[in-house]
DNA sequence: AAGCCGGGGTA
DNA sequence: TACCCAGGCTT
């Protein structure tokens, strides 16, 4: 199983072609590795880099993260998506302060017991922070192993995923993989999948694993890994109320603690126009002027959403703010967690 | 096992 | 448009 020298060939490739200047590598601390790994869940490197730099500048260590207000953390996450990652991140920081002396725990099992850290992320943190010998299995590794070992079937299927984990474990257990190179090996797998063994048009001519790669031998590198089974996503629509008062401020509401965009600040949202009209009537809102703005198309992983914003300019003093809503200025919005399409809409609004 | 949870890059 | 990405949590 390990005679293919998978790990050592990958490391030799990494020394020449790997990425050695990512921001979380300099300096490389457990806190920065952890933050980067969570940000990188289902999110590409180029997207993460500016968010990572802003986050560590604002909250440079674990105690600072634990002590920050939840709204501050969500604001720093705003635009990255999957906001439960941010909530879990802070919850984990508080657990570390309470149970682990203010640091990340030193074992993968204790890491994986923290919210937001699963098996692969725990292994990535431990190997990169302390050179611990643990296998990772992220999207990159799944693709590389599916090709190298010729594994058929969608990697998201549990049976396929179990096979891929066993291959990943066998490679990391290779005695030829030096104990001081586990951090590099983890990074090498990610870099290899992200830059050479890419989803489309992999650079097989430059591949150090080519002679043992089953997909290449069978000419199936463009067919593996097997794509996810097709699914047609449902379409939904919603009406957003853009209320502006005399001062030009906009009314934002905190969203419910569960569901999409949980606990973020957004515009009042309704299933349809009737719901919006009813809400306006209940709050005795008297619009001086109103108009429909351009629709916003927004895609989620499980449905498509069309947002239909309706602008109302309100006359006179309107008192509809409470603990979960308030009138905000353009500069207020910068410090709040706001869904990306709503932030785009508000930025356009304030420019006019 | 399947559904939920964002946003952006890419072909 | 459709798919994928340094996944994990909930049911």
TrEMBL record:
Query: Per the record's keyword annotation, is 4Fe-4S included, yes or no?
Result: yes
Matching InterPro entries = A/G_AdeGlyc_MutY (IPR005760), DNA_glycosylase (IPR011257), Endonuclease-III-like_CS2 (IPR004036), Endouclease-III_FeS-bd_BS (IPR004035), HhH-GPD_domain (IPR003265), HhH_base_excis_C (IPR023170), HhH_motif (IPR000445), MIG/MutY (IPR044298)
Reactions the enzyme catalyzes = Hydrolyzes free adenine bases from 7,8-dihydro-8-oxoguanine:adenine mismatched double-stranded DNA, leaving an apurinic site
Q: Which UniProt keywords apply?
A: 4Fe-4S, DNA damage, DNA repair, Glycosidase, Hydrolase, Iron, Iron-sulfur, Metal-binding
GO MF annotations, alphabetized:
4 iron, 4 sulfur cluster binding; 8-oxo-7,8-dihydroguanine DNA N-glycosylase activity; adenine/guanine mispair binding; metal ion binding; oxidized purine DNA binding; purine-specific mismatch base pair DNA N-glycosylase activity
**Record keyword Protein biosynthesis present:** no
Q: What does this protein do?
A: Adenine glycosylase active on G-A mispairs. MutY also corrects error-prone DNA synthesis past GO lesions which are due to the oxidatively damaged form of guanine: 7,8-dihydro-8-oxoguanine (8-oxo-dGTP).
Family affiliation: Belongs to the Nth/MutY family.
Q: What is this protein called?
A: Adenine DNA glycosylase
The scientific name of the source species is: Cognatilysobacter lacus
């Amino acid at each position: 199983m390990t005679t293919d020298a998978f790990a050592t060939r990958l490391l030799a490739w990494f020394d020449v072609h790997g990425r050695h200047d990512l921001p979380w590598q300099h300096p490389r601390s457990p806190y920065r590795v952890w933050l980067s790994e969570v940000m990188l869940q289902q999110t590409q490197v180029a997207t993460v880099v500016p968010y990572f730099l802003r986050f560590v500048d604002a909250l440079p260590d674990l105690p600072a993260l634990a002590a920050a207000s939840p709204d501050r953390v969500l604001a720093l996450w705003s635009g990255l998506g999957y906001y439960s990652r941010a909530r879990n991140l802070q919850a984990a920081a508080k657990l570390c302060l309470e149970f682990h002396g203010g640091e990340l725990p030193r074992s993968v099992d204790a890491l994986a017991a923290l919210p937001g850290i699963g098996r692969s992320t725990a292994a990535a943190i431990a190997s990169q922070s302390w050179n611990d010998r643990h296998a990772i299995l992220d999207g990159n590794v799944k693709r590389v192993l599916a090709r190298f070992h010729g594994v058929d079937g969608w990697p998201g299927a549990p049976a396929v995923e179990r096979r891929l984990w066993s291959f990943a474990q066998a490679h990391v257990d290779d005695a030829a993989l030096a104990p001081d190179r586990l951090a590099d090996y983890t990074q090498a797998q990610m870099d290899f999948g992200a830059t050479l063994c890419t989803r489309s048009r992999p650079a097989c001519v430059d591949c150090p694993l080519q002679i043992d790669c089953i997909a290449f031998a069978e000419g199936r590198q463009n067919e593996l890994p097997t794509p996810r089974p097709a699914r047609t996503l449902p379409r939904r629509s919603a009406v957003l109320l853009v209320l502006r008062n005399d001062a030009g401020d906009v009314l934002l509401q905190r969203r419910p603690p569960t569901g999409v965009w949980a606990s973020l600040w957004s515009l009042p949202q309704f299933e349809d126009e009737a719901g919006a009209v009813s809400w306006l009537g209940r709050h005795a809102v008297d619009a001086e002027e109103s108009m429909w703005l351009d629709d916003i198309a927004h895609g989620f992983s499980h449905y498509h959403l069309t947002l239909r914003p309706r602008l109302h300019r309100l006359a006179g003093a309107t008192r509809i703010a409470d603990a979960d809503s308030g009138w905000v200025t353009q500069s207020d919005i910068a410090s709040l967690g706001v869904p990306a399409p709503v932030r785009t809409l508000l930025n356009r609004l304030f420019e006019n």
